């Protein structure tokens, strides 16, 4: 995200978040709430690529539904967790019908 200030005396300091390990998460998401990431105090980020043919709905609560969710990944979509704030809790997913196995990477 670009930073902008029209005040030339404004200074912005940015500390990069770094990761040295990426973990491939193998999970099949069904039409009931499925935990796709466990809580992890060492998490720096995570990415999800929905290479399946169905929409997947995600939330930070096990109460996720196809009508109540934090974000939806349509078929062919990609999500990268924002680095500020870094969410370190559990993540859950659900599909309307059938199953889906997205590509998930957790960075620690």
Short note summarizing the structure:
With 108 residues, the chain is mostly beta strands.
Structure, described:
By secondary structure, this protein is an all-beta fold. It has one domain: Jelly Rolls (Sandwich), CATH 2.60.120.770. The chain is built from no helices and eight strands. The strands form two sheets. A four-stranded antiparallel β-sheet has the order 1-8-3-6, with no helix packed on it. The model has no long low-confidence stretch (mean pLDDT 90).
Q: What count of domains describes the coordinates?
A: 1
- Structural class, by secondary structure, is mainly beta
Query: What's the CATH class, please?
Result: Mainly Beta
Oligomer state of the chains in this structure: single chain
N/C terminus separation: 22 Å
Helix content: under 10%
Q: Which residues form runs of ≥5 with pLDDT under 50?
A: none
Number of strands: 8
The CATH architecture name reads Sandwich
Arithmetic mean pLDDT: 90
Number of helices: 0
Major sheet strand order: 1-8-3-6
Indicate the proportion of strand residues: 25-35%
